Amino acid sequence: MVSITPDSPIGVVFGSSHKKRKLAEEGLGLATVGDLLRHFPRRYVAATELSEVATPVVGEQLTILGEVRSCESAPFTAGNRRQWRTTIRLRTDGPDFSVTLFSPYKNLADRHEAEFGAGSRALFTGKAKQFRGSWQLEQAHGFALDGEGGAVLSKLIPVYPLTAKLYTWDLQKVIAAALDLVTGVPDVFTPELREQYELLGIMQALRWIHGPDEWGQLGAAQKRFRFEEALVLQLVLARRRAVHRAQGAQSRPGRDGAILAAFDARLPFELTGGQREIGDLVAEELGRDHPMNRLLQGEVGSGKTLVALRAMLQVVDSGGQAALLAPTEVLAQQHHRSISALLGDLAQGGMLGGAADATSVVLLTGSMGRAARQEAMLRTVTGEAGIVIGTHALLEDRVEFADLGLVVVDEQHRFGVEQRAALTDKSGTPPHVLVMTATPIPRTVAMTVFGDLETSTLAELPAGRAPIQTNVVPLAEQPTWLDRAWQRVREEVEKGHQVYVVCPRISGDASEDGATDQLDLDDDGNEVAPKRALAAVEDVHEGLATGPLHGLRTAVLHGRLAADQKDATMRAFAAGAIDVLVSTTVIEVGVDVHNATMMVLLDADRFGVSQLHQLRGRVGRGGLPGLCLLVSHAELGTPARDRLGAVASTTDGFELSRVDLEQRREGDVLGASQSGGRSSLVSLRVLRDEKTIVRAREAAEALLSVDPGLTRAPDLAAAVAEVERSAASGFMEKG
């Protein structure tokens, strides 16, 4: 018997089936036997049960197990050739399906009749289609589980992730052969760890994951692989945290009677309990001699920026500088204006009228004029600027700091780890890092996506935040409701308030990069063009200004405007000189206009749940009740409408973040931009497997506390090192 190892090429088990091997290599990315064994089924079909197909969807790819009601062959002529058509009628736990197989020879048709005899059970894969009121499986392929020539390898039939012309039974057969032949499969768990955590050995787990005879066997195998993946990931993150803690950093304890104390004394309101508690924790961590690395999350308007500003002032009091990195110019400009206004003369260091302990706050963006950029860079490199606010322009090599002590990253999901590192590398010693996000993050996601950061949450909203009513405007059923929406806008303006109108596109033929994160997908997960033109800022503004909103003061805002024009528009809107601002999602984060009480989101189904939640957080910020209208052509019962219904039903950001993750692909949860190279999860799901992830994090900390190098578990150490190498490689490629 031939002996193979996990490193052997998959050709050794595909044998003479070169086409199938090529499909597995090119379509699924499987190069070795080890890759093949780790290509786990996505679901299972019980060989003794008929498939439940309650409500088929036309075009949906189905894998069904049915009982053959009838199987009949008949000849027909195609061109000048005589061929045979075999029609198989299948009974499921739902509607009947018919399957048609074509054969160029009568003996093949006879073989089909013998294989799919009446009363036998068969497994077929194909696309659902309706013809004259009956369901069919189009382009179907399958095999019989019993009857003449029928076979089944396990009582629970695995259904694998596939590529075109490669079928689940193709993989089932070669994986079964590989399991019989393979030797030397490493087990990341030592016998002691397997006993401690009640886990299967690697070979037993592989056999049961690919060919279980009962659900209990499958559950035991899944438990092992989910815990393995969680543990390896948590070990990588724990080692990152340990390396970070081991780095030296300059202590930034602040000093009594300086700018932070003066700022606190001037605050016209009381800090919330959460702001005080997290502020004290951040202040204590800034005073340590190793770098703080903390994630601060909280709902829109929870006061994260104030916590960050107080941390920046503590660093300035300690003789250092702080940098605030924002994802857009609009947000960077907003931060610069609001922080300068909050500080008043405390931000006028070196200027006539500045306070005694004042610092200087500068703005640095890519679209600034040359003279303004040079002045900002000069004040940064000399240390005159205690607080530097900017966009990606801060990451440029020629931007230098005198003594960078704190990096604040706003809206972490817009930046990758390599961009964060590009800024922190500008400090002689590792700076302290505070990452902020207004996208609520479930606990297990924080443990994975942001697992190298310690996490704090601002759960309460400051006084003065008003409730926001959210309604869906369903144009598919109620097309006239849009007219009422524009009437409602006029009513709001007549009360002296202001309104946002948000569109997914800038113009009819171009979209704002990053403006939407919810795309139409076909059955194979590929993006498809929407059936109708999406609302565009320029077109919508023209139509409103000359139509339903004629006479109101309207303006546009989007990413292709010049920086000074965007800034002037936002200033005018903040000053109340504009009634209705028609914009893309550049107003998603950071824009703070207290008199804005209403938002109309056009083609709202083109945005993700978290993005919709962020956008509506722009209204109701001044103590006045807010109204958000989600305008959509999506039909009732579609995932898009379900998404909008979820947003309209609650303002709980953490609940919505769970809905968002449940509707998105798991690969999006651990995107390379977030994790530094690990692009997806295989067995693990961050919401479903919460207990497993928590247990794995505790296990990782316990293992590293007694064996930092994992010398007692060499295969586990190798798996961790492989993920670390992958992350480092991904980082270097991006860098």
From TrEMBL:
Domain Helicase ATP-binding: start-end pairs: 285-458
Q: Keywords for this entry?
A: ATP-binding, DNA damage, DNA repair, DNA-binding, Helicase, Hydrolase, Nucleotide-binding
Report the InterPro entries cross-referenced here.
Answer: DEAD/DEAH_box_helicase_dom, Helicase_ATP-bd, Helicase_C-like, NA-bd_OB-fold, P-loop_NTPase, RecG/Mfd
Domain Helicase C-terminal intervals: 481-667
Look up the domain of life of the source: Bacteria
**What biological processes does GO assign it?**
DNA repair
Which residue spans traverse the membrane? none
One MF annotation (Gene Ontology) recorded for this entry? DNA binding
Keyword Ligase listed? The answer is: no
PROSITE patterns attached here?
A: HELICASE_ATP_BIND_1 (PS51192), HELICASE_CTER (PS51194)
Listed PANTHER family: ATP-DEPENDENT DNA HELICASE HOMOLOG RECG, CHLOROPLASTIC
Name of the molecule in the record: ATP-dependent DNA helicase RecG
